[in-house]
Amino acid sequence: MKAFQWGKDVSIENLHQGFTNIFESTFDSKEAVAEYVAHPLHVEFANMFLGSLDKVLVIDYKPTSV
């Protein structure tokens, strides 16, 4: 993993659709993402953490400069 950040929604537009927090991970390649997702510590943490959430949205994307 190249970088990890998190934060709470502070938007005044109220378009969060019930999502209140974001966790953003940055990787150097698709292979690095696959390695992270399959890592036993990530799987263990995700199984524990996800059980305490009402809903989750996961987005994998390749940034594009505009």
UniProtKB/TrEMBL annotation:
What InterPro entries does the record tag this protein with? Dabb (IPR013097), Dimeric_a/b-barrel (IPR011008), HS1/DABB1-like (IPR044662)
* Pfam family, any one: Dabb
Q: Which domain of life is it from?
A: Eukaryota
* Domain Stress-response A/B barrel, residue spans: 1-61
The record, for PROSITE patterns, names: S_R_A_B_BARREL
Q: How does it assemble?
A: Homodimer.
Please give the name of this protein: Stress-response A/B barrel domain-containing protein
